[in-house]
Design goal:
The protein is an alpha+beta fold. It has a single domain, classed as Jelly Rolls. The chain contains five helices and twelve strands. Helix 2 packs across helix 3.
Length: 270
């Protein structure tokens, strides 16, 4: 595969989009259309495995129903090469310039990332991501999601939703259309998901690549302790006024306790 992120276009994108990334609501993010050369993603789509082709990791629980694989031995050759491009120096430099986060570290094991696929009826509840790599003991800082779906229709659902920190409203909805890339900061209240069940026809799936990037330590003002995925209810999921009030109170209490716990947690870089 030819080098991708050495193309001057990516340095120009980072320079032109850095300010809007930092100022984006409800949390720092950017949406980039036609992110990769078209022929590259076409080849990934051509090789993308069907739900019955791999030993997918199957998530089927209250908050999520999806397929994923981070196993490089199962990922098709071209997609595997592309994932390595995302972990290479040129891509790290692009992301550092774009986000302002220095000394990013890729994950060669694609913990929680790699290939994702959602079948009809699937969904992913609104959540904040796990924030600490269990093996490398690094802090998760950046998500990069790249969509590989041609001809996607709005009525099929599957939109990535970005929610405000109090879970009171969805600020942005993004259809998972072909070659759309969404990059955002991984923080304790970067709530996102695609919570509506997919209504696409049988044989059609929602396909994406997911890459996560880390640093050793994170700014003290973020003040977060380590945690796994934090799922949150939307207002429509709390059907009564009391339910919505309890939902808001849970958010407040959880945030206070995480802030307090940060100052008593042992040094994670040891």
């Amino acid at each position: 595969m030819r080098p991708i992120f050495a193309d001057p276009r990516y340095a120009e994108l980072a320079l032109s989009l850095g300010k809007s990334y930092a100022e984006a609501e409800p949390f720092p993010h950017v949406v980039i259309e036609d992110f990769l050369p078209g022929d590259v993603l076409e080849q990934v789509l051509l090789e993308f495995p069907r739900p019955d082709q791999l030993d997918w990791h199957k998530f089927d629980a209250k908050h999520e129903k999806k397929l994923a694989t981070e196993d490089a031995t199962q990922i098709p050759p071209f997609a595997r090469e592309l994932l390595q491009e995302f972990n290479a120096q040129a891509c790290l430099r692009f992301l550092e310039k774009l986000t302002g986060i220095e000394n990013l570290i890729p994950d060669p094991h694609f913990e929680g990332g790699g290939l994702h696929q959602i079948v009809p009826g699937g969904f992913l509840g609104v959540h904040a991501d796990f924030n600490y790599h269990p093996t490398y003991k690094l802090d998760r800082r950046i998500n990069l999601l790249l969509y590989i779906n041609k001809g996607w229709k709005d009525e099929w659902n599957g939109h990535l939703e970005l929610w405000d920190r109090t879970m009171s409203r969805c600020v942005k909805k993004l259809a998972p259309v072909f070659n759309r890339c969404v990059i955002f900061s991984t923080t304790d209240d970067a709530y996102h998901g695609h919570p509506e069940k997919l209504l696409c026809p049988e044989g059609t799936t929602r396909k994406s690549l997911a890459l996560y990037y880390y640093t050793r330590g994170r700014p003290g003002d973020e003040g977060f302790v380590t945690h796994s995925t934090l799922f949150r209810r939307r207002p429509k999921d709390a059907r009564t006024f009391l339910g919505r009030a309890i939902n808001g109170f849970r958010y407040f209490v959880a945030r206070v306790f995480r802030k307090l716990a940060y100052w008593t947690e042992p040094d994670r870089t040891a």
